[in-house]
Design goal:
The complex is a heterodimer of chains A (364) and B (321). Chain A has helices at 12-21, 34-42, 50-64, 81-94, 111-124, 129-156, 165-179, 183-198, 217-221, 229-235, 246-253, 259-267, 279-291, 306-322, 337-363, and strands at residues 2-4, 25-27, 69-73, 100-104, 209-215, 238-242, 296-302, 326-331. With 364 residues, chain A is α/β, with parallel strands linked by helices. In chain A, helix 1 links the parallel strand 1 and strand 2 (25-27). Chain B is α/β, with parallel strands linked by helices and 321 residues long. In chain B, the strands form three sheets. Chain B has a five-stranded mixed beta sheet with strand order 3-2-1-4-5. Chain B starts with a strand and ends in a 15-residue tail after the last strand. The chains are: A alpha/beta (364), B alpha/beta (321).
Chain lengths: 364, 321
C-alpha cells in the first residue's frame, strides 16, 4: 500500500524508513510550501487552526503523489485536534478520493484502539510483530538521532561566523541521515553529522541571549508553520530551546520520561487542570525556563487555539511574578515574515537592554 | 553643521527627519507612501536636500518601518532598526520618564511599556491588520468630513452612539446602520472613536500595565477625538509629543548618531534622489521554501538582494556601503 504521513519538522526522515520497513511504499509529501497552504486553506473550514490547514494541504499533496493511506496522530483533552482526523477524512472523501486516514490517539487513552490500528497496518504490510519490534528500535534510534542533531544545530547557530552556514550543514545532515538504514549506520551517520556541525567555525566569545520556546506542538516543531523562528533567532545570535521535540513527546506519552510532569507541577499554582492541547505546558515550561535563568520566552500559538489563548492570559501573571518577558505570537495564514521579524528584533532588543541593565546593576 | 537623517517607511506614510548634533529637529516631513516607497523616499530626499543641503552635512542615517530594508538601500543607512525600538528611543529622549507609549499608525498599532527608560514589554496587533489610521481616513472620506476636522466633531458630541468595534469591518457596517437610524454625525463619530479605543485596549493593550505618563503618538494622535476617548477610557491624561507623527524617524536620527560614532557614514548623499532605483523580484525554486527574492538595481547595477532564507542570493552580491 502507498502510505503517507504528515510532515512535522525532521521526523519524515524516520517515518519514511518506518513505513518502508513494515512493508509499505512510503509517499513522502513535499515539504510544506505556499502551495500546501493554498490547497489547505481552500479546502478547510475557515475557522480551523493553522496546523489543520497545513495538514490538509499536505494530505492533498500526498494524495496527488498516490497515497492510499495517511497515518497521523490525534490530540488529547478538550482540544479540537482530537477530531481533526475525522474532519480531514470527510473532506478527502467529499473531494472524491478513496484515501483513508488513520489517526493514532495517545496509547494511554486508547490502548486497544491503538493496537488494533497498528495491527491493521502491519497485517496489510505482511510484517510480523516480531519484525516490527526490530524495525521500531531502528527507527526510534533514527528519530532520536535526528532530534539530537537538530538540538546541536540550534546550539551552534548563534555562534556561527558565517551567517546561514549551520542551516546549510543541517540540511546536508538530513540527507546523510536519510541514507542510514541499520542501527550501526544510524550511529555512524549521527556521529558524522555531529562532526560536521561542530566543525562549523564559531565565535565562542559571543554571549547569546537564551530564549525558551513554548506553545502548541505542531507550530513549535514544523518550521514552515512558525516561519522558521528558531533559525531566524539563531541567526540574530540568540540561543533557543523549544519545549518539545517529537522523540521527547513520544517518551512522554509512553512514560519513558517525566518532563511533562515537572511542567504540569510548575504550572499548578496558576492552572491546575488539563485544558487541552499544550496550554498547561506553555504555562509550566515558561516557569521552568524562568527558573533556569533564560532571558525570555516566546509562546507560539495557532490563531484561535483555545488552550493557548487561556495560557496567554495566565502568562501575563507568570511573566510578572517571575520577571521573565514573554512574547506571544499567533500564527495564521497571513502572518508575514517581515512582521514577525520586527517583533522578534524588538523582543531581542528588549532582552538585551534588560540584561545590560542587570549586569550594570550587579557591578555598581 | 553636522546633522542626522532618519527615515521611517511605513505602509501608509513615510516620514523623514533631520536632527542636529544637539538633538534638535531641523526639518521633518510626513508623506503618503501611496504604495510607491522608492519614489516617495526620493521625493523626500529631494525636498530636504533643497532646504538643507547647503547648511548641513549628514553625518549618519537611520531607517525603520516595514520597508526598512528597502529604505536602507535607497539612502545608504548606518542603522537599520525595528519600529518598536525606534519609537522607544525617540520617546525616552523627547518625553523622559514616560512609562507607556500608545502608538497608532496607518496599519500597525502598538503599545510599548517602559520602566526606567528601558522597554520592558510591548505588543503589536498580530493577525488582524487593524489599520485604525486607514480606517479613520476611509470613514472621514465616506462621511465627506475632512480628516482634520474629524476629531473636533467628535468632541462636540454630547451622547456618543455605541458602535460595535470588534473589527473595522463590523464597525463600518454598524456605523452605517446607526446612520440610517438617524443619529447625528458627531455622535456617530464620537462613538466610532470610543469603539476603536475599546478595541485597541482590549486587543493590543490587554494585560499590560498602563501607567502614566502615557505618550500617545503615530498619525492617529492628531485626532483629538481618539485622544479624548483614550483619556476617558483610561481616566488619565495623554501626552502627545510635538513630533508625534514622525517619532520613528526621530528615533532613527538618534540611533544613527549612536551607530556612526567614530565611523564614516554610508549616506549616499542628497543626489540619491535622482538615482534610478529599480526593484524586481523572483521566486527562487532552489528548495521547497520558494522564497520571494527582491533585488534592487541602482542606475542599472544590481546592488542588493534579500528575502531568501538560505543566503544563496543575498550573499551573492556585494553588500551596500
Amino acid at each position: 500500500m502507498k502510505v503517507s504521513f504528515p510532515i512535522m519538522g525532521n521526523s519524515y526522515v524516520a517515518f519514511k524508513q518506518l513505513v518502508e520497513q513494515i512493508g509499505h511504499e512510503p509517499v513522502v509529501p513535499p515539504l510544506p510550501s505556499s502551495r500546501t497552504m493554498t490547497l489547505g486553506t481552500t479546502y478547510s473550514p475557515e475557522f480551523a487552526c493553522i496546523p489543520f490547514k497545513i495538514l490538509m494541504g499536505t494530505y492533498l499533496e500526498a494524495i496527488e503523489k498516490g497515497a492510499e493511506l495517511i497515518i497521523s496522530s490525534g490530540g488529547h483533552g478538550p482540544c479540537r485536534a482530537g477530531y481533526y482526523g475525522e474532519v480531514h477524512q470527510r473532506i478527502i472523501n467529499e473531494l472524491g478520493y478513496k484515501t483513508k486516514v488513520i489517526i493514532f490517539d495517545s496509547v494511554n487513552m486508547a490502548f486497544k484502539d491503538f493496537f488494533k490500528k497498528l495491527h491493521y497496518i502491519l497485517r496489510t504490510g505482511k510484517t510480523s510483530w516480531w519484525q516490527f519490534i526490530k524495525v521500531y528500535r531502528t527507527v526510534w534510534d533514527k528519530l532520536l538521532a535526528l532530534d539530537e542533531i537538530e538540538l546541536l544545530a540550534h546550539q551552534v547557530r548563534p555562534y556561527e561566523v558565517e551567517k546561514g552556514k549551520t542551516s546549510e550543514v543541517y540540511r546536508r545532515c538530513l540527507a546523510i541521515m536519510d541514507q542510514a538504514r541499520t542501527r550501526t549506520q544510524i550511529k555512524e551517520a549521527k556521529e558524522a553529522c555531529f562532526r560536521l556541525l561542530q566543525n562549523i567555525s564559531q565565535d565562542k566569545s559571543r554571549k547569546p541571549l537564551k530564549i525558551g520556546i513554548v506553545g502548541e506542538i505542531y507550530v513549535q516543531i514544523e518550521p514552515f508553520a512558525n516561519l522558521d523562528i528558531q533559525a531566524t533567532l539563531g541567526e540574530m545570535g540568540v540561543f533557543t530551546k523549544r519545549g518539545i521535540h517529537l522523540s521527547e513527546w513520544w517518551m512522554e506519552t509512553t512514560h519513558q520520561s517525566h518532563n511533562e510532569e515537572k511542567a504540569v507541577a510548575a504550572a499548578r499554582p496558576y492552572l491546575n487542570q488539563m485544558i487541552g492541547g499544550h496550554g498547561i505546558l506553555s504555562v509550566g515550561e515558561t516557569i521552568l525556563y524562568a527558573r533556569r535563568g533564560f532571558d525570555g520566552v516566546i509562546q507560539l500559538a495557532p490563531f484561535s487555539c483555545i488552550p493557548e489563548i487561556v495560557a496567554k492570559s495566565i502568562l501575563t501573571q507568570v511573566s510578572r511574578d517571575y520577571g521573565i518577558p514573554v512574547l506571544t505570537i499567533f500564527l495564521d495564514e497571513q502572518t508575514g515574515r517581515e512582521g514577525l521579524r520586527t517583533r522578534l528584533e524588538a523582543f531581542v532588543d528588549l532582552l538585551q537592554q534588560r540584561r545590560q541593565k542587570r549586569l550594570g546593576g550587579a557591578v555598581s | 553643521m553636522k546633522a542626522y537623517l532618519g527615515v521611517d517607511v511605513g505602509s501608509v506614510s513615510t516620514k523623514l527627519v533631520v536632527m542636529d548634533e544637539n538633538d534638535e529637529v531641523l526639518e521633518s516631513l510626513y508623506l503618503r507612501t501611496q504604495g510607491q516607497p522608492v519614489k516617495i523616499v526620493q521625493d523626500g530626499l529631494r525636498t530636504l536636500g533643497e532646504k538643507l543641503g547647503q547648511y548641513v552635512e549628514i553625518a549618519g542615517t537611520g531607517v525603520t518601518g516595514s520597508a526598512r530594508n528597502l529604505a536602507a538601500v535607497l539612502v545608504g543607512a548606518d542603522a537599520v532598526k525595528n519600529e518598536i525600538t525606534a519609537h522607544a528611543v525617540a520617546v525616552s529622549k523627547l518625553v523622559p520618564g514616560a512609562q507607556t507609549i500608545l502608538e497608532i499608525g496607518g496599519q500597525d498599532s502598538k503599545i510599548i511599556i517602559m520602566r526606567d527608560g528601558i522597554v520592558t514589554d510591548f505588543a503589536m496587533n498580530t493577525v488582524c491588520a487593524a489599520g485604525t489610521g486607514s480606517f479613520l481616513d476611509h470613514q472621514a472620506d465616506r462621511l465627506k468630513i475632512p480628516i482634520e476636522q474629524f476629531g473636533e466633531l467628535a468632541l462636540r458630541s454630547k451622547n456618543p452612539v455605541r458602535i460595535a468595534g470588534r473589527c473595522a469591518v463590523f464597525a463600518e457596517s454598524d456605523m452605517i446602520h446607526k446612520q440610517q437610524l438617524g443619529h447625528a454625525a458627531e455622535d456617530i463619530i464620537a462613538g466610532l472613536c470610543e469603539a476603536l479605543v475599546r478595541n485597541y485596549l482590549n486587543n493590543v493593550g490587554k494585560g499590560k500595565d498602563i501607567l502614566p505618563p502615557v505618550v500617545f503618538q503615530g498619525g492617529v494622535a492628531a485626532n483629538t477625538g481618539i485622544k479624548a476617548a483614550f483619556e476617558k477610557a483610561l481616566n488619565m491624561e495623554l501626552i502627545v509629543p510635538q513630533y508625534f507623527s514622525v517619532m520613528g524617524a526621530v528615533g532613527c536620527c538618534l540611533l544613527a548618531k549612536e551607530a556612526v560614532r567614530g565611523k564614516q557614514t554610508k549616506f549616499k548623499g542628497w543626489q540619491a534622489a535622482e538615482y534610478k532605483f529599480q526593484p524586481t523580484s523572483f521566486e527562487c525554486k532552489g528548495c521547497p521554501n520558494l522564497c520571494e527574492v527582491i533585488q534592487i538595481y541602482e542606475n542599472g547595477v544590481l546592488i542588493a538582494r534579500w528575502g531568501d532564507r538560505c543566503g544563496k542570493w543575498s550573499n551573492a552580491v556585494v553588500k551596500v556601503g
